[in-house]
Amino acid sequence: xxxxxxxxxxxxxxxxxxxxxxxxxxxxxxxxxxxxxxxxxxxxxxxxxxxxxxxxxxxxxxxxxxxxxxxxxxxxxxxxxxxxxxxxxxxxxxxxxxxxxxxxxxxxxxxxxxxxxxxxxxxxxxxxxxxxxxxxxxxxxxxxxxxxxxxxxxxxxxxxx
Length: 161
Fold this sequence. Notes:
This protein has helices at 3-16, 90-98, 108-115, 152-160; strands at residues 26-35, 38-42, 48-52, 68-73, 80-88. The protein is α+β, with helices and mostly antiparallel strands. The N and C termini lie far apart (82 Å).
């Protein structure tokens, strides 16, 4: 099989396969790329570990921070604990949510509420919200132009001349 044919089959497998994760597989979120086809991923429970990109996906699919993938655990690795089985795109994520197998920890509403720091953990501030803020800093690299509005009478006089 040529490289182009193999690539075509791999792309079709990822984009057209709407199967649910099998037993033992789990949906994880990519936290960062560690290089050499290794990605740090986070489970729904918050565990972090490395997952490897299999050879068949390399140079065909690129994964960025925040993407979701399906991983299968591997036993032989100490640091690398899983291998990426599939990359999840919008359509497949929507399908998994409809089937009710999407982890609640990865819902956007939950993720946004977790991202904020509760007010009781923030240090006290001296200023109150009612005071006026300082004026904005003026960019001295730009020419300051003043626009004057002309009245209708002035424009009529100019047109007559």
